[in-house]
Amino acid sequence: MYKNGEPISMMTAQDYPSGLMVDRAGIDMCLVGDSLAMVALGYDSTNPLTMDEMIHHCRAVARGNKTAFLVVDLPYGSYEASPEDAVRVSLRCLKEANAEAVKLEGGKEMAETIRRITRVGVPVLAHIGLTPQRQSALGGFRVQGKTAKQAQELLDDALAVQEAGAFGMVLEAIPSEIAGYITQRLKIPTIGIGAGVDCSGQVLVMNDALGLFDRFVPKFTKQYANLNQIMTNALSQYHAEVKTRAFPAPANTYPIDPVQLEKFWK
Ligand code: KIV
Ligand code: NA
Prior knowledge:
One of its GO terms (biological process) is pantothenate biosynthetic process. Helix 4 (83-97) packs across helix 5. By secondary structure, the chain is of the alpha/beta class. The longest helix is centred in the middle third of the chain and has 17 residues, at 148-164. Strand 4 (101-105), helix 5 and strand 5 (124-129) form a beta-alpha-beta unit. The chain has helices at residues 16-24, 36-39, 51-64, 83-97, 111-119, 135-138, 148-164, 176-185, 206-209, 227-243, 258-265, and strands spanning 8-12, 29-32, 69-73, 101-105, 124-129, 168-172, 190-193, 201-204. The site of sodium ion has 5 residues, from loops.
């Protein structure tokens, strides 16, 4: 798709039903992103998520998704201390979680780690720009590459992770001109989120795109549905029907053979 100039679609999933939906929608790539820490598990950031939690979710997604290329995020703290740690957890993702590739956050400083992971046959998707795992150091979730100096650093990071062997990279929260220029300069695809239309592909967090998570909505999100409202309304209606005995109706109830019933009463 990249070679043909066809934009690549990527969407996150976190469990069996969402993996199945990504597959059925024909989406090209499926990301078990560590954003699931916030949108599915209720943590305040992605930082507390463990490798075991991630594997649990990725296995469920893999049972639903059969066709989209499956990428899993390496959780914060599982891969930074040494390339050996990174290789070990990356292999776990393929062996235990049925992932086909891993994603990790960082630029130049992660180049050696990316080189080591790819050398053992695990494809790596890099992630630069806004790196949510480092939100404490970045001072929150905010746009990156807004000064000429920062933009140059982003380009240097992009070239470094490409050189290290990444098969592509996520560009998050970067002005579109900068993301477009970085994309032009590379020989591998960029997957944008809040990075404009000139990236090689796009990714969104499913719970944001479907309007399931509304604690906060990033500027770059587009809500394609408002499922939170639809689902909450459905649950309220159920609650009301239980209270009025409108549910269950005869259609939701099992019959019994009248002869058997007569015997029972006797
Ligand atoms: O965790 C995630 O969902 C991500 C995407 C936003 C790229 O990393
Ligand atoms: Na992530």
